[in-house]
Structure formats: C-alpha cells, structure tokens
Amino acid sequence: MTECIQECFEFVQHFSRQVVARFDGGWVSSDGGGLLLRQTDRKIRLLQRVASGFTDRRSPWLLQHELGEMLAQRIYGLALGYEDLNDHEQLRRDPLLGLLAGKREIDRPLAGKSTLNRMELTPAAEAAAQQRYHKISYSPERLDALLVDIFLEAHTTPPPQIVLDLDVTDTPLHGEQEQGFFHGYYGHYCYLPLYIFCGQHLLCARQRPSNQDASAGAQQEVERIVHQIRRCWPQVEIILRADSGFCREELMAWCEAHQVDYVLGLARNQRLERKIAPALGQAKSAHQQTGQAARVFVELVYQTHKSWSRPRRVVAKAEYLDKGANPRFVVTSLLTQGWAARELYEQLYCARDEMENRIKEQLSLFADRMSTETLRANQLRLYFSSFAYVLVQALRRLALAGTAMAKAQVSTIRLRLLKIAAQVRLSARRVWLRYPRSYPWKPLFAAAWAALRC
Fold it and tell me: Which end of the chain is more exposed for a tag (fewer CB within 10 A), N or C?
C-alpha cells in the first residue's frame, strides 16, 4: 500500500490569509546563542582541560565518538538546559550542538544516550583496564585542581584578601543509589554535597553520603584548595566563612596553624545565652520603646568544656524581635582592631547568604540530577554540572561585565542569550546561522560578542 505522508497542516484563517504549516524549514536549532559559550570556552580553554582529566582506553580504530566531543556534548547540554541523557537521543542530530561539541561533520549524529551513559558509568582507573565496555576513567584530583586553576586565572593580579564560603545542600534520591541514606533533618533519602565558593567562583563540589556530619571532609578540601592558591599567591590573606555546621575544633585548629582566618557560626546554648543576658535585656527594652527590632552586639572570650582546645573570640548578636529573643553567635580568629563586633557580623558574616544564590544556580544546571547507581558516577555528574556553571560564569564575567546582565542568574542568561532560534545552513566554506529579526536582545548579544572577540 502507498504510504500517505501529510505535508501541509492547515489552521484557522487569519482574517483573509490562510495559515499553513510545513516541515521544510531545514536545520533549525533553539540554542543559537550557544556560540557565545563556544567563544567563551576558547578564551578559558575549559573543555580541552576537562578532557585531559580523563583516560580513554577504547580502541582508536573503532571509535565513532571522540571523548572530547562527548564531554563537550554533555557540558554544553547542561548549560543549554538539557538535564537528562534521554534529551541527547533527540539532540544527537542537532547541527548546532554538533558544532559546539567540535564534530568535524556536523551533519553526522552525535553520541546517543547509551554511549553517554557508558561514559558516565566510569570505573576507577585500575578497574577500567579490566572492563570490556566501560573503558573511560577520570581523575578526581585533576578535575578538582582545574576548578581552582580557572579561579586563579580569572585574576590578572593577586587580590589582597579572599573569602572562601563553605556550605552543604541536600540532593534527594529516588532509587537505590549507592550510599544513599535517610537524613532526619531533610526528611528524605539524599546525598549531602559540599560546595566551596569564592565569590561567584566554584572551587569545590564534592558528592558525599548523608550519614555523616555536615563538616565531614571539609578540612581536607580546604587544605587542598589553600595550598593550591598559596602556591600561586603566597601573600594572599584567606578568610574561611561558614555556618555553625562547620564550627569544629579540627577545622579551626588547622586554620590557626596555617594562618587562615575564619568566621564560623556558633550554635547557641544556655552558657552563651547567660553570658549575654544583660545585652538581651537592653535589646528587649529598646524593642518595647520603639516597637522595632533591636540589636545589641557584644563580644566575649569563650571556650567549651571539652571540645575546644583553647579560648576563642565570640561575637554575639543580642536581638529582640516581635516574636521574642533571637540571639546569634559567631566564633572568629579575626582581631577586634580590624573587625569590630557589629561590622564583623553584619558586613562579613551575613554576606555568606550570597552563597545561597550560587547553590541555586547549581540546581538550575541540574546538579541535583543524581540518578546513576554508583557514588563515583554521580560525582562525575556533579563535575559536569560544575563545569557547566564555570562556563556560564566565565561568559558572565568576560562578556556581560558592565551590561544590565552583569549579575544575572544562570537561568536568566540561558533564557535571554542562549535560547535563540537559529536556522543552520552549510556551504562549502561556511556554517551560516540565521537568527530571527524579532529577537529582542540583539544589542546585548552584540556587546557580548564584541567583548569575547577582544
């Protein structure tokens, strides 16, 4: 029987004009702004260095998809909003993604979901040599070092002072993932990834089981990062900032022994509240007189009965609100001469809230998509999301500085600059992309392009 294929699709008329749709528009992509990411990558050489952290033991004469192409395909896909490997089954024939991934013949299909999945299920290096199908392995040490290298290279001159922010979040699990445990605080099975940022720069993203203290492994990560930074910037002053989940003797003692200052939240207790009772009384009186929230800052020298090895400076915020007393405490190694109590709390410690926005940006790049079975493979997925963030952050830093989107979130940059419809046409000497005339942010796109061309 003759197969009937519908070529035209007629819709309701628009006044006197007929409305007819056809699938004959050629190659069209919804990610035309991805060329800005490609230009950004040429500036910082990110994907090339990511690939150097992998070892490919596949037979070269049997390869259809190069390792660098698959890594670029995965990282660009996350930056452009494609969270799942299933998306790449439909995207593998997108010519623009082929261009971004570095495929020589962009009209040839990219790697499908099964090939990418085999890459993500990477075993350790010693096991990869014995595997039949999973012959790609990665070095966590080299990928960790790359995050810090990108941060160092972003500065033309060493800054006099940097602040390292530490925080954790929960990654919900919905299957039988390795080392997935129930967490009582979050109320579900999850991982507990550790993040370390310096401003908008991501320095560490470590996937961890949730059956441990929030600060577990933090000292080792901080030690590694500080040593790498000081090899390049030996004179830089480093301040460590985190909430009370990281207020542990081991971390504070290491900082004191290695000339690293810290400002850490301190969980309140009855001893601390008794010490600031007069200040809380003053705040309560002020609140009763004005009806507004009242704060009184005091500082004291404090030492726990057992866990701390020495007395330390504690800054207390004695605050009284409509709902009652709201005391807060931080412990710090910074001296009073440089940081008075109020400035230390309000200007330095409270500024750590900005890190919440950075973690939200990680989630917009699908850092919570941890559906692979093993912890090692889920760590690799976290690396991919991290490098997608580094790429978009570099675009924001290099191309959008001085524009209205200099501080825009990753999701906003993706929506306005990357998700542009584009018709792709190949000629003998060029790859043509045609953008729509109705695109509303053409001046912003032109400014970003010009900045990246410098």
Answer: N
Nearest to 446 by CA among 39, 22, 13: 39
Beta strands in 36-146 (DSSP E): 54-56, 136-138
Rounded to the nearest 10°, the torsion over CA 302, 305, 308, 311 is 30
The span from the CA of 91 to the CA of 153, in Å, is 33
pLDDT at 152 over 90: yes
Quote the mean pLDDT of the chain: 92
- The widest CA-to-CA distance across the chain, in whole angstroms, is 93
83 phi and psi, to 5 degrees?
A: -85, -25
DSSP alpha helices (H): ranges in 312-374? 341-343, 354-364
d(CA 364, CA 391): 14
Helix, coil or strand: residue 194: strand
Q: How confident is the model at residue 382 (pLDDT cuts 50, 70, 90)?
A: very high
| Token pair recorded at residue 392 | 């978009």
Say if residue 5's pLDDT is above 80: no
Residue 258: phi and psi, rounded to 5, are -125, 25
Structure tokens given for 128: 């990869």
Cβ partners under 8 Å of residue 401, min gap 6: 451
In this predicted structure, what is the pLDDT of residue 64? 87
Q: Please say if the pLDDT value at position 8 is more than 90.
A: no
Q: pLDDT digit string (tens) for 38-60? A: 999 999 999 999 999 999 888 88
Q: How far apart are CA 277 and CA 89, in angstroms?
A: 63
Report the DSSP beta bridge partners of residue 11: 19
| Domains of the chain, start order | 27-135+373-453 (no CATH), 141-361 (3.90.350.10)
Both structure tokens of 47: 């994907």
Percent share of the chain, pLDDT over 70: 96
Q: Specify the 3-state DSSP secondary structure of 91.
A: helix
E-assigned strands of 306-387? 312-321, 324-325, 328-332
Q: Nearest 5°: phi and psi at 229?
A: -65, -45
> Look-up: residue for tokens 């500065």?
155
Please check whether residue 249 is in contact with residue 218, taking contact to mean a CB–CB distance below 8 angstroms: no
Side chain identity at residue 421, one-letter code? A
Cβ 214 vs Cβ 168: under 8 Å: yes
What's the token pair of residue 366? Answer: 């699908």
Kindly give, in sequence order, each residue whose CB lies less than 8 Å from that of residue 353, ignoring residues fewer than 6 positions away: none
Q: What is the pTM of this model?
A: 0.93
- Can you give the pLDDT at residue 131? 65
pLDDT per position as a tens digit, 206-243: 999 999 999 999 999 999 999 999 999 999 999 999 99
Strand partners, 296: 318
